[in-house]
Amino acid sequence: MIGQSNDSEEWGQMQNLIKTVTFSLALTLVGGCSYFSVYKRDLPQGNLVTQEMVEQLRPGMSRDQVQYVMGNPLLRGPFDDDQWDYVFRLDEAYAGVKQRRVTLTFANDRLVNIEASGDMEADMELSPDLDPGPGVEPAGAETLPGVSPTPAPGSEPDASGEQI
Known about the structure:
The protein is built from three helices and five strands; from the N terminus they run αβααββββ. Among the domains are: about 10-35; about 45-115, Beta-lactamase Inhibitory Protein, Chain:B, domain 1, CATH 3.30.1450. By secondary structure, the chain is an alpha+beta fold. The protein is rod-shaped, with a radius of gyration of 32 Å. Strand 2 and strand 3 (about 85-90) form a beta hairpin. The protein is about 25% helix and about 20% strand. Strands 1, 2, 3, 4 and 5 form a five-stranded antiparallel beta sheet that branches. Keywords: Cell outer membrane, Membrane, Signal, Transmembrane, Transmembrane helix. GO terms for molecular function: protein-macromolecule adaptor activity. One of its GO terms (biological process) is Gram-negative-bacterium-type cell outer membrane assembly. This is Outer membrane protein assembly factor BamE. Part of the outer membrane protein assembly complex, which is involved in assembly and insertion of beta-barrel proteins into the outer membrane.
C-alpha cells in the first residue's frame, strides 16, 4: 500500500510536468508566429529622390535652380555650404531597406559635381498614409450652415471698406 501511494504521487507530478512542458512549448510556438506579431508599416525618411530629378540637374546651375528641382537639401556641409546631400531611405515593413543618396557640390554658387548612389531607377512605391491622424481643415473648407467666420480682433473693416 505504501508503494502504491508513492506511485500515484509520482504519476501526478509527472502529469503536472508534462502539462507544464506542453503549455510552455505551445506558448513559445504561438509567440514565434509572425501571424501574431506587431503590425509594421513602411517608414520613408528624407528627401524623395527620383531618376527624373537627377536627370534635370546640369553643371553650372545656380543654387536656386537646384533647389527648385530637388527641394531643400537634407544635409548641408557644417563648415561650408558648398556640399548638399539629398538622402532618401525607405525602411519597408516586411522587406529590406532601400536608400538613395545624391551629393551635389558647388563652387562659386554654381553646381560643379553630381554624385548619385543607390538604385535610382527602381520604383519605390510609397503607400499613402491612411491613418486618421490630426484633422486638418482643407483650403476652401465650408463652414457650418448658419455660422459665419468671425474676423480677428482689430481687423474689422472701417466705413471705407479697408482693414484697420
